[in-house]
Amino acid sequence: MWGRLFHFTADAVLISAVLAGIKRNSGLQPATSQIENEDVRKYVNKYLDIGEWVVDSSVVFMNNSAYFERKK
Ligand SMILES: *[C@@H]1O[C@H](CO)[C@@H](O)[C@H](O)[C@H]1NC(C)=O
Description:
Blueprint: H1 2-26, H2 38-63
2-acetamido-2-deoxy-beta-D-glucopyranose (NAG) is lined by residues 59-60, 63.
């Protein structure tokens, strides 16, 4: 039960992070403005914010890590 919940959460965060990464790269993002239900839209935006946060944190972490370098 908890294992499954953990996997579901991990997958959801990963997908959110990938979407945030694509947004950084191409400016493309899910068309949340087309969601008519205001509550749903709010939650989808919150979900996408998690991905942004994950990407930001990863960038800070990698920036401070010796295992990553900027391509010249
Ligand atoms: C990466 O680290 C350097 C030095 O600590 C800092 O000046 C720079 O703003 C950081 N860049 C990012 C994208 O966090």
